[in-house]
Write a structure and sequence with these properties.
Layout lengths: L2 H6 L2 E5 L5 E7 L5 E3 L7 E5 L1 H5 L16 E7 L9 E4 L7 E5 L10 E9 L5 E8 L11 E7 L4 H4 L2 H15 L4 E8 L18 E7 L5 H4 L4 H8 L10 H4 L10 E4 L37 H27 L4 H8 L2 H23 L11 E2 L6 E2 L37
Parallel strand pairs: 2-4, 3-9
Antiparallel strand pairs: 1-2, 4-7, 5-8, 6-7, 8-9, 10-12, 10-13, 11-12, 14-15
Length: 421
């Protein structure tokens, strides 16, 4: 790392307006270097795009502004993801990335190497640096009185900025008046099951900020536990808090979601693990696979049970059904033998009478309808045949005849006037 980059890489602490020193660590390191956060205190590490632009080739034309889209990937060295206490956020490829989280006491004295890989989306090149996090013990860990606030008009990356976080801690100090006040953790509302807001009216996701102090909670913070405010919260109404005006100018706090915890009064719960039974591997030791001298298992009996037996049963049922449908039919002759003779005679006479009536109806002589007679074309002299075929079904002809003076038409004689008239 050259001297210019070394001068830009600084470990700063959050300083707020009320001259309150907070041990929150804000690191702007991008090369291989060590940082020393404290357990139980918020740790913030900013990945600046401006530095990583120097790791990639410039634009082809000199003088063009360099605004390459750069994204970051962070992971624990040798593993695909980060430690559980460390989070990462980057809104767009044109904004800085931020690593943040709150290490716990169990990580004290254990160096954590984070691999930071920068991807240039224009040239498809990468640059990699290591960040070694050495977690040390805090002077007083943990702080006995902890309060978690839900801020509705902030996103997590906005709250991680040193100026905004300093303003919030200054407002908390005014209403709490502690001797020591630290930011313990910051969590996005999306990580707590919140919904992504609609892209209208500049809505924010919301952020949870946990702070710790060394003195009991003030009377203002205790107002959220009053029965009157609890009733208003249950009715989805905003509670009445006397110190809300000290936050309202910049931070909109949901007082119904504030959490006050006194660690001195928390009863520790010890979970006893049951004794592992047979077949459970011990927690320590190397895994020893079974030897290769194990006997092979015979699956023939399993095959008979699962495939052969059901197939045989299905085949037997198929033959029974086929015999019943094909070989057990009575037939016409057997049916006639079981039918009384008088019933067969009646049935036969009905069939003969039906056939006779149908033949007689076809042979009767009646006049044809007008639409079925030949038509004479006065221009060509051609006679157009009727539209009905030779085997025309006469039973479908209309009962009323409308034409007059047709062949085979019965004419009704008209009565002539008598001579006397």
């Amino acid at each position: 790392m050259n001297s210019t980059h070394t001068g830009n890489v600084l470990l700063t602490s959050v300083v707020f307006k009320m001259c309150v020193s907070v041990v929150t660590i804000l690191s702007r390191s991008h090369a291989d270097r060590n940082v020393y956060p404290s357990a139980g205190v918020l740790f913030v590490h900013v990945l600046e795009r401006e530095y990583f632009k120097g790791e990639f080739p410039p634009y082809p034309k000199s003088g063009d502004p360099s605004n390459d889209p750069i994204t970051f990937n962070t992971n624990l060295k040798g593993y695909p993801d980060r430690p559980g206490w460390l989070r990462y956020i980057q809104r767009t490829p044109h904004s800085d990335g931020v690593l943040y989280g709150s290490p716990t006491a169990e990580h004290i004295g254990k160096p954590t190497v984070i691999e930071i890989t920068a991807y240039n989306r224009r040239t498809f090149e990468t640059a990699r640096h290591n960040l070694v996090i050495n977690i040390k013990a805090a002077e007083e860990f943990p702080l006995p009185y902890q309060a978690e606030f839900y801020i509705k008009n902030m996103n997590v990356e906005e709250m991680l900025a040193s100026e905004v976080l300093g303003d919030f801690l200054g407002a908390v100090k005014n209403v709490w008046q502690p001797e020591r006040l630290n930011a313990i953790n910051i969590t996005s509302a999306l990580d707590r099951g919140g919904r992504v807001p609609l892209p209208i009216n500049n809505l924010k996701e919301g952020v949870y900020v946990m702070v710790g102090a060394d003195v009991p909670f003030s009377s203002c913070l205790r107002e959220v536990e009053s029965p009157h405010n609890q009733l208003r919260c249950s009715q989805e109404m905003e509670p009445v808090i006397s110190c809300d005006k000290k936050f309202r100018a910049q931070f909109h706090i949901d007082w119904c979601k504030i959490s006050l915890v006194d660690i001195n009064k928390v009863v520790p719960v010890y979970v006893t693990r049951p004794e592992p039974g047979t077949g459970i591997l011990p927690e320590f030791g190397e895994y020893k696979p079974p030897s290769e001298s194990l006997k092979s298992r015979d699956y023939f009996s399993d095959f008979l049970v699962t495939l052969a037996v059901p197939s045989a049963v299905a085949l037997v049922l198929f033959f029974i059904l086929g015999y019943t449908m094909c070989c057990r039919r009575e037939g016409v002759e057997k049916r006639n033998m079981q039918t009384p003779d008088i019933q067969l005679v009646h049935h036969s006479s009905i069939q003969k009478s039906t056939k006779e009536l149908r033949s007689m109806s076809k042979n009767r002589e009646i006049s044809w309808p007008l639409s079925t007679l030949p038509v004479f074309n006065p221009v060509s002299g051609e006679v157009v045949p009727p539209i009905h075929p030779d085997n025309y079904e006469t039973t479908s002809m209309p009962l009323m005849q409308t034409q007059a003076n047709l062949q085979n038409q019965i004419t009704i004689p008209q009565q002539r006037p008598s001579a006397a008239e």
